[in-house]
Design brief:
Elements: E1 4-6, E2 14-18, E3 21-28, H1 33-49, E4 55-64, H2 66-79, H3 83-86, E5 89-96, H4 100-113, E6 117-122
Parallel strand pairs: 3-4, 4-5, 5-6
Antiparallel strand pairs: 1-2, 2-3
Length: 124
């Protein structure tokens, strides 16, 4: 599959999607997250259909608003439809030390995913 690279802005995260690695970093406070995340979601669905042998997802959000969280959840949930793909997942959720909201969001997503999901605390 063709790689996708989206540079981060003040309101949107950096996104890098390639075979075996999905990377998100920055803030996601979009007025219309559908416009931003729909192409990312489509790429992920196509990628899942190719039945990849391993998938590492790194999520390093500084802040993410509620409407963006819904899209992140939908993207992650797409992996749950195929048990053989779910077994290949390795998800890293990074949050800053003291950021209880991002830590809690990571814990919620980890409980939903029920896969290899690591919460990684970083320095402030």
């Amino acid at each position: 599959m063709q790689e996708i690279k989206i540079n981060k802005t003040k309101y949107s995260p950096e996104v890098y999607l390639k075979d075996g690695k999905l990377y998100f970093e920055g803030r996601s406070v979009l007025n219309d997250p559908h416009l931003f995340y729909q192409p990312v979601y489509s790429w992920i669905k196509q990628y899942i259909d190719s039945r990849p042998s391993s998938i590492q997802i790194d999520m390093k959000f500084e802040y993410i608003n509620t409407s963006s969280v819904k899209w992140v959840f939908e993207m992650l949930k797409a992996f749950l439809k195929y048990p053989e793909v779910k077994k290949q997942l390795d998800i890293n959720w990074y949050y800053e030390e003291g950021d209880d909201d991002m830590q809690e969001l990571g814990e919620i997503l980890r409980s939903i995913m029920n896969s290899s999901f690591h919460l990684i605390k970083t320095g402030e």
